Amino acid sequence: MIRVVLPPHLKGLAHVSGEVQLEVAGPITQRSVVDALEARYPMLCGTIRDHVTQQRRPFLRFFACEEDLSHESIDAPLPDAVISGKEPLLIVGAIAGG
Amino acid sequence: MSGVRVLVGTRKGAFVLNSDGKRERWEVSGPHFAGWEIYHLKGSPADPNRLFASQTSGWFGQIIQRSDDGGKTWTQPGTPPGERTTPQGMPKGESNKFVYDTSAETGKPLTTHQFYDGTQHPWEFKRVWHLEPSLNDPDTVYAGVEDAALFRSKDGGKSWQELSGLRGHGTGPKWQPGAGGMCLHTVLFDPTNPKRMYVAISAAGAFRSDDGGETWLPINRGLKSPFLPSPEAEVGHCVHRIAMHRSKPGVLFMQKHWDVMRSDNSGDLWQEVSGNLPTDFGFVIDVNANQPETVYVVPIKSDSEHYPLDGKLRVYRSRTGGNEWEALTKGLPQKDCYVNVLRDAMAVDSLDKCGVYFGTTGGQVYASADGGDNWAPIVRDLPAVLSVEVQTLP
């Protein structure tokens, strides 16, 4: 199971608390995890990546294992600790504004 | 006894205020969607329990919410909470999807508009500013968006299609963003002619459709904007708000960036009716539900201050359809008040006497139950108010 931590606003939209656990088929990448997340919680479509371009929203970041993965290829494998479920993938809203 | 429901959109959530017809005691529910900007929420005239809300965020984009019980519970249309699929198949959050129509069959090329620096800039969807439910179909609702365009949903907000004849009208390269962005903020329907509707855009101007939104005509003759190279240009005017009385749909009132205007011929020609206003700058304008020549504005000091003159919050009322204005001050702060009243933040009920409501960037919602003679805050410590709408309930 892949563990994902959502920012509070998106937890509210998805009506979840705590971590989300997802079954992800195939290679475990940013793309496949977000695909699985949107399939299970369709109300999140468009909130993490643009509906059309599929680009990550500018004020969101992907972190795992104390590293910023935001600028990695979205098709690159996630760290082994995320794939094994030891560590979560963190979707983080940038701290900006008021 | 009739009741009144006031729908308040703020920088940090939505609030629903309810009262009976006396309009003396108010119950406040909220915040709904805490922490999100709620640009606008509005009820369907065809089904008062059906409300639509625009929930938006610079981080997470655009969300559309709908309530079918008068604001007690909300769902994203087509994506009920707790349901991973629907009988029709997974909607994939289509209710949040606003994509400009560039198809060869129905759409228009995604052209450019004028940017702040005078260069041309491509159209980019940012948020929904205004939701206008159909007068007679609870499943049909229109959305005015930034960058300026008009969308329509015919399935209760589950999916949205652009009415691209407006954006593709041909004058787009001359449209430009105001300080708040290039937004379509006003949608009005002619209750006597289902094919006729109006929109207003900052800063492009006013437009009219006589074929249900397929094609559009700029209706800006008579407007004068000194900041434009040609002050009487066909488009480019910073219209802040347009209002209409249901009984006289050919008469329109406009609060422009500067100037309060009036048209007696469905926008074909405008004339200034600022008259004795202390300043002709402001954002809101509305018409008394029972008196089609009684109009309300809130003059605001321009250009960079954007607060009431002399720290006195005053609504101005004209009983003559403009030109002759009186200050309404009873119950409103008359010193040290430096709030703004944004363009979507005034509304009226249809009781007798007409109730008038407006919200401020200081978080107060003021109401008058007697057409503006006396005012009182019905809630006073909300986040900055972006929009106020009112439903008169049976």
Descriptive overview:
The complex is a heterodimer of chains A (98) and B (394). Chain A has 98 residues and is of the alpha+beta class. Chain A has a single domain (2-93), classed as Ubiquitin-like (UB roll). Helix content of chain A is 22%, strand content 19%. In chain A, strands 2-1-5-3-4 form a five-stranded mixed sheet, with helices on one face. The longest helix of chain A has 11 residues, at 30-40. The relative contact order of chain A is 0.24. Chain B has 394 residues and is mostly beta strands. Chain B has a single domain (43-348), classed as Methylamine Dehydrogenase, Chain H, CATH 2.130.10. Chain B has a four-stranded antiparallel sheet with strand order 3-2-1-29, with no helix packed on it. A four-stranded antiparallel sheet of chain B has the order 9-10-11-12. The longest helix of chain B is centred in the middle third of the chain and has 4 residues, at 164-167. Chain B is globular. The model of chain B has no long low-confidence stretch (mean pLDDT 94). The chains are: A alpha+beta (98), B mainly beta (394).
Shape of chain A: globular
Distance between the termini of chain A: 35 Å
Count, helices of chain A = 3
How many structural units, i.e. domains of chain B?
1
By CATH's scheme, which homologous superfamily of chain B applies?
YVTN repeat-like/Quinoprotein amine dehydrogenase
